[in-house]
Amino acid sequence: MANLIRKLDELAVDASVSRGSLLFHSGTPASAAFVVRSGRVVLVWQASDQVYPMCVHGPGSLLGLASTLNGQYTVTAKALDDCDVGYIPADRVVALLHSSPLLTLEAMRLTAADSARMRSMGSDRKSASPVTPKTHRSS
Predict the structure, then answer these.
(1) CA-CA distance, 85 to 33, in Å (whole number)?
(2) S-S: 17 plus which of 71, 79, 87, 120, CB 3.0-4.6 Å?
(3) Bigger pLDDT: 36 or 116?
């Protein structure tokens, strides 16, 4: 799987993300995948007015791969720190996978592992306490 992440990182556009900023939001069209180069990003699942933190990703993590293939983000990604990421447009992800059956197999394995991890977190979420998001009012 490291080969897929390395290849995608080679195609990536450098981007800086400020602490607290969203890389992507659940339910929106998937425009890109991201390789975390520095800092930490938390994935959260949102239900109505509650937020459930799922997992924290650091350098070397690939975020949004499955979403670039199915067209929509299913979780929200938020920077916990100032981060440097590689931004890989969805069309570049698809083109890379189209060019290499071996990389496509790596992507399938990675998305299957992510899916299994999300399912197990989903069952854990039933017993977890949600975090109520803070509302910021503008003056």
Answers:
(1) 10
(2) 79
(3) 36
Q: Taking the CA atoms of 121, 122, 124 and 127 in sequence, report the sign of the dihedral they define.
A: positive
Domains along the sequence of the chain with CATH: 2-122 (2.60.120.10)
Closest listed residue to residue 20, CA positions, set 38, 6, 41, 4: 41
- Compute φ and ψ for 71, nearest 5 degrees: 95, -5
87's CB contacts (< 8 A; 6+ apart) are 12, 13, 14, 15, 32, 34
Give the model confidence (pLDDT) of 65-107 as tens digits: 999 999 999 999 999 999 999 999 999 999 999 999 999 999 9
